[in-house]
Design brief:
- It contains four helices and no strands.
- It has 109 residues and is an all-alpha fold.
- Helix 3 packs antiparallel against helix 4.
- The radius of gyration is 23 Å and the shape is elongated.
Length: 109
């Protein structure tokens, strides 16, 4: 363990002397608090980070946002026909959201 630590220290010092640690994003700032990510699988976290940087929203989150919008529309609508249409849309979105959620959960097993 000690040898491994020394190897790491040497690599850091070498990179520092070559200027490889200058101009990095967040340089001079404290490390971000990521204690909430401690229990998240690193592979999942990396995938989510890549998706976020690319501007991609997971299907489950997109459906959840649509579902919230549809529920708000239902609450704000007074016309019985429009409410019935909104209710059908909510049912469809809820089913699709649950399917996406179940697919993600079964994938993570």
């Amino acid at each position: 363990m000690r040898g491994f630590r020394n190897l790491i220290e040497r690599q850091i010092l070498k990179a520092k002397s070559e200027g490889q640690l200058e101009g990095l994003e967040g340089e001079g700032q404290p490390l971000p608090d990521r204690s909430g990510e401690a229990l998240v699988d690193p592979g999942i976290a990396a995938g989510m980070k890549i998706m976020a940087q690319a501007g991609v929203v997971p299907e489950e989150l997109r459906l959840k946002a649509e579902l919230d919008e549809a529920r708000k529309l239902y609450r704000d609508t007074q016309d019985p026909t429009a409410r019935k249409t909104a209710m059908a849309r909510i049912a469809d979105l809820e089913m699709r959201y649950q399917m996406a959620r179940d697919a993600r959960k079964s994938f993570l097993r």
